[in-house]
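README: folding subset

This subset contains proteins for which both the sequence and a predicted structure token string are available. Records are stored as plain text. Below is the entry for ABC transporter ATP-binding protein (583 residues), shown exactly as it appears on disk.
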Amino acid sequence: MAEKTGFRIMKYIKPYWPQLLGAFGCTVIAAVSILLLPGLFQNLTIHMKLRDFKYLGIFFRQGMALLFLRFISLYGQTYFNAYVCQRAITDLRNGIYEHLLKMSFSFHAKWRTGELISRTVSDIDIIQNVLLHNFSNLLLYVLMSLGLTLKMFDLNWRLALIIGAVAPVVGFAMSWFGERIKRITSIVQAKVADISSLIQETISGIRTVKAFSREEHEIGRFNKENERNFLTSMKRARVEAIQEPVVEVLAFLGILVVVWYGARCMMNGTMDLSRAVAFVTVILFIREPVVGFSRAYSQWQQAFVSSNRVFEILDKSVETIEKSGPVKIPSIKGAIKMEGVSFHYEEGKTVLSDISLDIMPGEIIALVGPVGAGKSTLTSLIPRFYDPASGLIAIDGYDLRSVDIISLRQQIGIVPQEVVLFNRTIKENIAYGKVNASEEEILHAAESANALDFIMRFSGGFDTHIGERGIKLSGGQRQCLAVARVILKNPRIILLDEATSSMDSESESLVQVAMARLIEGRTTIIIAHRLSTVRHADRIVVMDSGRIVETGKHAELMAGKGLYYKLYQTQFKPLEEGMEQKG
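--- output ---
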């Protein structure tokens, strides 16, 4: 698994191979500058015995040259490594963000938003930190270890074998600790995702939290999650805290035995002083790659866990898949045909069953029914947010499964019950569906949606930033901007979910007029909550338990005394009377 993950990470690094070669070249030079030092000290010892004072100047110049070479090579290694890793991480983050936006609604319904944010931000940050600090350093540690090991064998093979005997023990210790760090890291990252989800959920619902005075409750929930994360993180910290000392003690134990044996060799006259000095220098330098490799190994285990979490998202296939060579539909008239349409979110749990409906261009259809009847699901199939499990949906004769999704959605306008606006300017929000719109077009759309008056009351006018989710605007103002956005888009089909019951009478009147202008001459499907809407519809479609149970005009359905009649008595009539009293 780790090997496969490593190769996948390398795919993001591969495009920047020139900079990668630069980093590796500088790493080789940095390693060589270290490997030459033991020989430099060995020569110094020889010339000291000969009392060659002239060599001291040569030694100093050679030492300074090696230091300068190491300075330049380490700078190049760090710079090129940072460039490669930052570019790779940027590409990875762009890739997962693009993938998330292309995923279907069913995917986003299954995954928590906080979980996705955690994997896109926190997990990628871990990968980034490991790559930045350990990618080219691993090569440096390997080259230093190999070079210094060869040097030890050249100086004294017996002493080198003693050091070699310690190496497998050190390797086993690193592997043992690394597996535990990897297992705990997966738990830690899951806890981080839980915290991200909790924060996202609470902040997005801050109005509800405050309305019910649940601040202390939510603080308690967060503290518990945070404490669980702390305890799990400390498990990993304990493993990391013991790993490096264990590796260092094992390495020092080998050094201690070498010094002891080397001292005996010198006393016996089987090893001269210059070789002993060189060997001790090698031992001092070999500690850095051994300990560094141990530290890097544990951090790479964390990176592999985070990489697997990121790639798990990237491996999810887009559920709404276009056929090869999709048809780009031209400007449509707006005829919609549904024939035997069934749909389920989960296998065995049918939401829509055998829906058949023909809608003429420009016809206004009011969808009504009790909660959970399938109204919202039915409208979600038209822009292909989901694909039906069976049956046919066609627009102007084009089977939606064979059309280009972008060309389809460009001709559909949606005004949801819960309007979503972005933390940008009013102008940017209106022009969201037509980014190349002129100032005159934006102005006209705002005016048609009854939004111009309140927009101009802001000191910044159209350049006013409206806050996250349009929090600086009232509910009616958000609705008007949503209508303006669709008017500017100028689609042939409108999907509208009414949401006027929570507004004051003045705001409601402005929105109703804006809605009337929006749907004029366009094929419109309204999920209706108001009697005035269903009365003015060309046709009322009554749904219950995922099926169409009645269709007709208001008077016809009232005379039939079916489900619509019951809905009128329990839902539409009381709501209308309440609005009249409020007015």
